[in-house]
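Class prep. Protein, please:
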Amino acid sequence: MRRIKIQISYDGTDYHGWQVQPGLPTIQGTLEQVFGEIEGRAVQVAGSGRTDAGVHAIAQVAALSMENPIPLENLRRAANRLLPPDIRVTRIDEVTIDFHPRFQAKAKTYEYRIFRGEICAPFDRRYVYHHPYPLTLEAMMNLAPLIEGEHDFAAFAATDDRDELGASKVRTIFCSKLAQEGERLLYRVTGSGFLKHMVRNVVGVLIEVGKGNVDQSALIERLQPGCRIPPGPTAPARGLFLVSVEY
């Protein structure tokens, strides 16, 4: 039995997120179908984490086990021939049999893209949040680093089916930065892990900062243990990209 680590890039627009859902197109489901066809039996593909419906990935990481002795590069080519054009396997490696892309990940980086111009090109509309309205960018940029450090992110997390397990919502953020590049705002965040809708909710709150509705003290309050402020507003999925996973 071989353990195969794959790096995948995908346009999440037409998918109902990463995780398999009966009767719905998902990234995981599509990968399992393709690698199962190559292997000749059912194959389980484990990802580094679940991306939401409509979220994209530049370098998602996943792993699968298979017996087929096909050389790695031939396996990559075969997978890409069978996959739809909005999912690509960009790298493939053989790893130890105990490798798990989620549990062994050290950090993940996400990027959120906001387009500020009056007219958003049709070719960009799937990959940015078009927000041409007035924002105080300096305030947003100044408060973005407050997210860094170890915090309880319950006030930035959507309800999850794993909540019943009582898992901690404490995460460590290594870098949180908002920058302007031409007519785009790029929010980039690196952390030990992320909760459901967490990055999109952080972006939504930063936009509220830009509107003048949330100040520094209100943002800090959201990071306190036991905060009862409901999550949100949630920025649209289409502007979010999983950039990298580190091991």
Observations:
- Strands lie at 2-10, 45-47, 56-66, 87-95, 107-115, 129-130, 149-152, 170-181, 184-191, 240-246.
